Amino acid sequence: MSDASASSAAAAPSASWLASLDAVYALFEDPALRAQHAHLAQRTEEAVRLCEEVVRDVGLEALAISYNGGKDCNVLVHLLAAVLQRLSSPASSSSLPRLPALYVACAAPFAEVERFVAASVARYNLELRRVRSDMKGGLQEYMRMRAEHMGRPCSTVFVGQRRTDPGGASLKPRDPTDPSWPTLERIHPILDWSYADVWAFLRCPVFGDEALRMSAAQRDETATAQAPGVPYCVLYDQGYTSLGSTFNTLPNPVLRLDDADAGAPRHAAAAAAAAPPSALATRAAAWRPAYMLQDERLERAGRVGSSPAREGQGQAG
C-alpha cells in the first residue's frame, strides 16, 4: 500500500536554511573549515563527489532517495540536497529542487519519526511517496508508481546504508540490486562512514542553529532545536541509537543513566526542563543521547529481533 505526498509547492526556504546546505560545500572548500574539521571534510567531499557524479550521469528525473527519518539518511538527504542546489540552481536561487523520495514505512513507526519525516518533506522539498511494505516490496511499488503514475521511471536510488549495517559489508558505492530485486542502481555515499562520522556531521556547528529556523511549536520534532547542526529525530536524544518499529526498538541499554550519572549531558531533557512534566521529558531524562555511544558495535543493541533479510538492501535508522 502507498500514500502519495502532498503535491502543493513547498514554501520558499529561509536564507539560513539555504546557508546550511551551502555549508556542506564550505566544509571542504573553505581552507579554514577544512583544517578545523579535517576528517569530516574529507568524508563529506568524497560523498558529495559521488552524488555529483551520479546526478550528472542519470539526471534528477531518474533518481530518488530512500528516506525514513533515520540518522544515516538524514546525513544523506542534507548532502544530496546541497548537491542538487549547487548543480541545479544559480547561486542567487531562493528555492530548492524537488527531490523524489521513497519512504518505506515499518509496521508500527514511532509517532516522533512520522512527524519528523513530515517536517523533512518541507525542509528538503521532498516529493515523498510513502509505501507500507518491506524494502523489496517498497521498491517494486515505488518503481511502478514512478512509471505508471508519475511518468518518470526510476533507475537510481540513493541509500543511507553504511558498511556496518546488516548486508553492508560487501556493498560498493555504486551497486546494482541483486537479481531477485527490482532492477536499480543503489548509491551509497556514506558507505564507509562510521557511527561517529554520522554524529560529527549531524552536530557540526558549520550547519547553523536550528533554533533560528523553527518556531517554538515545531521544536519538539527535532533534537537540534537547542544546538547547532542538521535537524535529526528527537528520539536520538532519548537513548535510541537505531530506529525501527515500536515493537522491536528500545533505547540503547548502554546509554541508560543511573543516579551516579546525574550530571551527564541530557540534551532533550535539558530543553524540556522548563516545560511542564510530560512523557517526552520523562523518557529523555533516563538516557544519554545517541551521540554519546562510544562503541559503534553496540549501535543496534536496542533493536530486538531485527531481520537482516528485511534490512539487507535497505538502510538502518
Full CATH superfamily name of the largest domain: HUPs
Low-confidence stretches: 266-282, 307-314
Backbone CA Rg: 19 Å
Mean pLDDT: 83
Provide the CATH architecture of the largest domain. 3-Layer(aba) Sandwich
**What's the arrangement of strands in the largest beta sheet?**
1-4-3-2-5-7-6
Distance between the termini: 22 Å
User: How many strands in all?
Assistant: 7
| The top level CATH class name of the largest domain | Alpha Beta
Please name the defining characteristics of this protein.
317 residues, alpha/beta, Rossmann fold, 2 domains, seven-stranded mixed β-sheet, 36% helix, nucleotidyltransferase
Write a concise synopsis of the structure shown.
The chain is globular. By secondary structure, it is an alpha/beta fold.
